[in-house]
Amino acid sequence: MNDSSNIESLKRSDITDGLSDEQCQVLADVIEIHNLKDGDVLISEGQTDSHLYIIDQGRIEVARAVQGGNWVTLAILRDGDFAGEMGFIDGSVHSATLRSMGDSRILSLSRDTLESLIDTNPHLVYKLMQTIIRVVHKILTRMNQQYVEMNNYISKQHGRY
Q1: Which domain holds residue 133?
Q2: DSSP label at 52?
Q3: Which helix (H) or strand (E) holds 152?
Q4: The whole model's pTM is what?
Q5: Could you give phi then psi for residue 47, rounded to 5 degrees?
Q6: CATH number of the domain residue 30 falls in
Q7: What tens-digit pLDDT sequence spans the chain (161 residues)?
Q8: Whose CA is closest to 104, among 130, 78, 136, 70?
Q9: How many domains does the chain have?
Q10: CB-side neighbour CA atoms (13 Å) of 42
Q11: I want to staple 77 with a disulfide (CB 3.0 to 4.6 A). Which of 81, 82, 111, 132 is the partner?
């Protein structure tokens, strides 16, 4: 993929919010591209990985293993969505497996690469971290809302316990 395609791919996500064209170019120069086939695993539950992933094209299933060897789908990520934010930020163990649903193209940025930009492009790093925090906040807000809805449903069905 050429640089102009990389920039176009990045601009389809929120990662470039607030970045200048020059900063977008710097980011486009350091991202990696991963092409996944149906069923390919991007991230495995229980492992660590220091990359931020951005879904450029395709769909990624977020699933957790449950008793009996079954899987529960927690979410489906689509174009522009992020994955691996916490592992990217602090090296946390991944709590779910991310698997491609059909062909997918994924952009990735390693934590080491981002850290190498701190001295030369501090504003770029600041804006990227600001965007990641905003995305994580949206996820937390959605999870809190789902928890409230589930709690209300259980209370209505079975009373409080």
Answers
A1: 3-158
A2: E
A3: helix 122-158
A4: 0.84
A5: -105, 165
A6: 2.60.120.10
A7: 456 788 888 888 888 888 999 999 999 999 999 999 999 999 999 999 999 999 999 999 999 988 888 999 999 999 999 999 989 999 999 999 999 999 999 999 999 999 999 999 999 999 999 998 998 888 888 888 888 888 888 888 776 55
A8: 78
A9: 1
A10: 34
A11: 81
